[in-house]
Structures are given as structure tokens and as C-alpha cells.
UniProtKB/TrEMBL annotation:
Record domain Electron transfer flavoprotein alpha/beta-subunit N-terminal: where: 4-187
Protein name: Electron transfer flavoprotein subunit alpha
Gene3D superfamilies referenced in this protein's UniProt entry, alphabetically: HUPs, TPP-binding domain
The species this protein was found in: Dokdonella fugitiva
Keyword Electron transport applies: yes
Family: Belongs to the ETF alpha-subunit/FixB family.
Any GO BP annotation: fatty acid beta-oxidation using acyl-CoA dehydrogenase
């Protein structure tokens, strides 16, 4: 039977929703136990949150001052050491965090990593996207060694929280941590809008907006819907919005219940980032735009006319 260790992703004392999505993936592996590892300077609040996720058997905490910031060089030796305590799988979200930490863990354990797990066919057999999501490949990892894998969070719903009360246990790891990497600072945008990668609704704009000033209609509609704001790579490259709003192959992969694409033609790189969305609405003046091929609802016309009318109709 599988015994799975999930590395918790967190920031500012709060658990990232991707951790609960990893738990859903782990359940598909029919594991004997699913444990969550929390590395932090003060892991108490994060561990308490993780313990409420349905399906979690136990939460392990490592409280060290060096864990105050999520540095891959510092986290990886501790994760690798924890994994040696009988775990068959080590998982983390396929986010910037997971993509940074887990390859180092795999290297320390001497195994190859399985990236972007999107479906489970067996304890060591998975499906994952390749070629910018244009094809899905089935991969099988050796059963005789620890499996290290990142989970494509857009492919899984978050496990429910609240009904569970998993025990929280401190974990003592005798691991020497490297000192060649140190935390200097973190700069990030502040917003009252929902997080782009976990939002249920997303309103996104493309190059057709024409300027950063015109992007205000995207923000306005998003606020009316209580949605996050996203953008195509073309809009980001044009300087209309910052790069952290970029959706697609080279940006963020999302799976909201509702995705509204405004002035976005629908290049394959962008479609890769939204293919798991529930309902896709497209607004574009070009009736032949590729976005309409995957949209559930489409409006053909001038976005500067249609978007204000849509916002007005919302009341």
C-alpha cells in the first residue's frame, strides 16, 4: 500500500489551496495514509489548517528559524529526510513552489521526478500533459523507489475541509542545512481581488484592449463579479498588466468555474492554461478567433461596447 507525504505550500501563515488539491490526487492512489509536512518557523496555524482537510491522516511539523521563508535549497534536504521514514510517494502542487522544491528532493533521493500529474491510473502510473497540453501521455514510474511528483492543481478539486481533525505531530530531523542560499526579500503585488490560481471566477483581457488604461474595464467587470483578473501573454508583453497576471503555457494554469476572455484571440499557449475551466465565455470582434472553438458562450462585437453593457446588465 502507498504511504504519501504531501509538502504543504503556504505563505504569510496561510495554506495554499494547492495542498488540498494534492490530497484529492493522493486519494486517487488509494493510499494507506496521506500525511502533510509543514516546514515553517512557526508551523502551528498552518498545521491546524492542514489537519482539517478530509483525507489527511497526520500533519508533521518541522519548526526551524531557517524555514521562515520557502527556500528550495533549505526545504529540500528536510523533505528528503522526512520521505525516508517509510513514504512511497512525495507530492507537492505544480506551482512555482513545487517546481522549485521537488526537483531538488528527487535529486537528493536519486530518483526521477514525475511532473504535472493530471490523472491517476495506478500507484505508479499517471497521465500528464505534453506539447503545451496538445497531447496527454501515460507514464509509469518504478515501483521499487520513492515517487516524487508535482500535481497539476487545475486537474483536481480541492479536498473538503472542516470535518477532519488529523493529529499534529512535531518531527525531529537531524539534517544539516546549506548556508549558501539566503533570503533577501520578497516583492509581491497586493490586491483585494481573489488569487488568480484559486479563484472561482476569472475575467481576462488581451492585446485588443490596446493600453493599460483601457484595462480598467476588465478590472471593473471583475470587481462586479467578485472575480480575479488575468491576461494573455500578448497583453503582458505589451505592458498593459504585470506578468503575475499572465495565463497560459508560460504563465499560470487555472481551472475556475467561470472564465471570461475579453479581446483574447485564443492562441494555443493561452488555451493550455484554461482548458480545465468550467464555463468559458469569449468576447471578440473577430468571429473566426480560435477562442470561439472552445468557448461555451461567445459574443462577437466591439468589447468596448459589449463589456460596459454586460456590466450594466449585472446590476
Amino acid at each position: 500500500m502507498s504511504k504519501i507525504l504531501i509538502v504543504a505550500e503556504h505563505l504569510d501563515g496561510k495554506l495554499n489551496p494547492g495542498t488540498a488539491r494534492c490530497v484529492t490526487c493522493a486519494k486517487d492512489m488509494e493510499a494507506e495514509a496521506v500525511d502533510v509536512l509543514v516546514l515553517a518557523a512557526d508551523p502551528a496555524a498552518i498545521a491546524a489548517e492542514a489537519s482539517k482537510i478530509d483525507g489527511v491522516a497526520k500533519v508533521l511539523t518541522v519548526a526551524r528559524a531557517e524555514n521562515a521563508h520557502a527556500l528550495a535549497a533549505v526545504y529540500a534536504p528536510q523533505v528528503a529526510a522526512a520521505a525516508k521514514a517509510g513514504y512511497t510517494h512525495v507530492l507537492a502542487p505544480s506551482t512555482t513552489f513545487g517546481k522549485d522544491v521537488l526537483p531538488r528532493v528527487a535529486a537528493l533521493l536519486g530518483v526521477a521526478q514525475v511532473s504535472d500529474i493530471s490523472a491517476v491510473e495506478g500507484a505508479h502510473t499517471f497521465k500528464r500533459p505534453i506539447y503545451a497540453g496538445n497531447a496527454i501521455v501515460t507514464v509509469e514510474a518504478p515501483a521499487g523507489q520513492v515517487l516524487v511528483g508535482t500535481v497539476r492543481t487545475a486537474s483536481y478539486a480541492a479536498a473538503a475541509t472542516g470535518a477532519n481533525a488529523a493529529p499534529v505531530e512535531p518531527l525531529a530531523l537531524d539534517v544539516a542545512l546549506p548556508n549558501h542560499t539566503r533570503f533577501v526579500g520578497l516583492e509581491q503585488g497586493k490586491s483585494d481581488r481573489p488569487d488568480l490560481q484559486s479563484a472561482a471566477r476569472v475575467v481576462s483581457g488581451g492585446r485588443a484592449l490596446g493600453s493599460s488604461d483601457a484595462f480598467k474595464i476588465i478590472y471593473s467587470l471583475a470587481d462586479k463579479l467578485g472575480a480575479a483578473v488575468g491576461a494573455s501573454r500578448a497583453a503582458v508583453d505589451a505592458g498593459y498588466v504585470p506578468s503575475d497576471l499572465q495565463i497560459g503555457q508560460t504563465g499560470k494554469i487555472i481551472a475556475p468555474d467561470l472564465y471570461i476572455a475579453i479581446g483574447i484571440s485564443g492562441a494555443i499557449q493561452h488555451l493550455t492554461g484554461i482548458k480545465d475551466a468550467g464555463t468559458i465565455v469569449a468576447i471578440n470582434k473577430d468571429a473566426e478567433a480560435p477562442i470561439f472553438e472552445i468557448a461555451d458562450y461567445g459574443l462577437v462585437g466591439d468589447l468596448f461596447t459589449l463589456v460596459p453593457e454586460l456590466e450594466k446588465a449585472l446590476g
